[in-house]
Structures are given as C-alpha cells and as structure tokens.
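Lecture 7 notes: from sequence to structure.
We start with the chain below.
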Amino acid sequence: MRNSGFTIIELMVASAILAIVMVFTMQIFTINNRAYVKVDSIVDTQQSVRAIASIFERDLRHAGMMVPEIAGICGIDNTSAPDVVYISDHTAINPVSAIGTFDGARVVGGVTQVNSGITTLGLDSLVIEPDTPDPSYDTDGNGVNDSDFNDNGGGVIIADLMDPDRGTVCGTVENVNIATKSITIDIKSNSFDTAGTAMLIAVPAIEYRIDSNRLYRNNLILAEGVEDLQLAYFLDTNGNNALDVGEMYGISGNNYVAKDSDVSDLRGVRFNVVTRTRSEDERFTQGFFQATENRDAVAGQDGYRRRVHTAIVRMRNIGDRVGGT
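Predicted structure tokens for the same chain:
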C-alpha cells in the first residue's frame, strides 16, 4: 500500500508555482497602487484649481463693490515670480440699507505721497460705512469687531479721489491702532508717480499671493501645490468702449503698472492659475513650467504634472457700474 502525502519534488514544484504567482500578484498590486496614486494626485490637482478659480473669480466680481471704482483693485505684475493682487474687501462692507458708495477712509495729516516699504497712515475712520458703522474685524483681541481693516494678513488699496490717474498703491496691513485711528502698512507696489494736492483714501482689501507653492488669501492658506498666478488687465484708456491691443496690460511686452492707471477704466481681468501635483512622478519626466501672460519661461523638465485654469472676469462694479463712482 502506498503511503499518503507529498514527495519532496512535489512540494518544491508547488512552492515554485506559489512563488511565481506571488511575484506576479505583487507586481500587479504595485502597478495598480502606482496608478491609483497618480490618478488621485491628478484629480486632487484638478479639484484644487477649480476651487481656487471659483473663490478668486467671486472676489474679482465683487471688486469695487460700494467703494470708489479707482480703489477696486491693485496689481503687482511680476515676470519672474507670481503676481500679487489686492481686491477691495467686499466682506468688510455691510450693504444693508445702503444706496450709494462709501468713499473709503480718508488719509489725514496732509499726506500726498505714499512710498514703498513700511508706513503708518492716520485715517478719519477705521470703518468704511461711517453713517451705519459695522466693523468687520477684531484687531485688539477683545472679542469685539472694531475695524474694517484686517491686520491678520489683510490688504489695503490707496487711491487719490482728486486725481484718479495717479493709479493705486497697495500693501499688507501690519497693525491697526484703534486709539490713534491709524494703520501700519507694508506697501508692496510702486509709490505714486506724482505728488501735490491730494485726497487720499484707504480701502480694505483681500490679498492674494503665492509663497512656497502655497496660495494665500490674506493670511490663510487657500491651497497648496499652486505654482503660479498671473493676471492681465484690460483697461479702456481711450474711452472708446473697445479693448485695443495697447490697452491689455500684464501680457507679454506690456506690463501692468498700477500707477498712472485710472482703475475706473478697467473692463475685465484675465487670470491664470497653475497648479501641480504634490510630488514628482519618477516615471514621468516631461513636465515643464507653464508660463502664462508675461511670465518668463523656465527651462528644464521634471516629473510634476500641471493644470492651468484660465478665465476672464467682466467687472461688475468697475467701469460699467450704474451711477459711476
């Protein structure tokens, strides 16, 4: 009678077959996992750019809402870095029971010029709606809102009511002093090109900037993996209600300069957001920097996959606003 069981040879053959099956299984698992990670990263990038575009477009459409058109937006145009933009802060203004626009906070002390760098400006009020004061931010930490200027990374736009052609100056609010009704600002844009008799106003603004591939809205991280933000501004400077070639700023060969530009001539803004995957794909080496508008191209290829979102926003509260400024 034959004894039951397996021979050594049978066990070796079975082990070899099992090993081969495990190798192929692990290879399939690795391939599927790599594909999942790649697809998940791309989907995350696409969702991120959609969310960014939605929020940014909403803020752009509110630019100039219930404040003078000339202080609706201020751009810092960069060709070797992401653009920086300041948009009048619609969340700081209470439109209830309001019919006209608010002039903004008047700069006091006879100031006619604002230079780049840190500066402190005295204002006639820290609240934009003086007739129905409704401050939006708590700047002294006592739990009570006391200012429309946000000192937690918020921005400010300064313009001249008497001479709109001086353009705008913009920067980040570093400090708000309730007792003296003053704000300390880090002016990021160019200074006014001219001086003289002036009626300077300050309008609270939302700051959009990119730092270390993070897009900030004021001092909050809106999204990570954002490589670039570039804008083009369409200003009808000759008043013919048509956008001529020479009136498109922030594009190749025609930089946007905030000074010497009456923002009430603005008819539209084209913005480009470039996002990229969280990490490089070692099997993908054909990625390259996406240069939009007047941004300088960057040579070389890498393993990042990128998405570019481009949109044009027609200004609702600037240029075509009913009733003017």
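Points to note: The mean pLDDT is 86. The longest strand covers residues 200-211.
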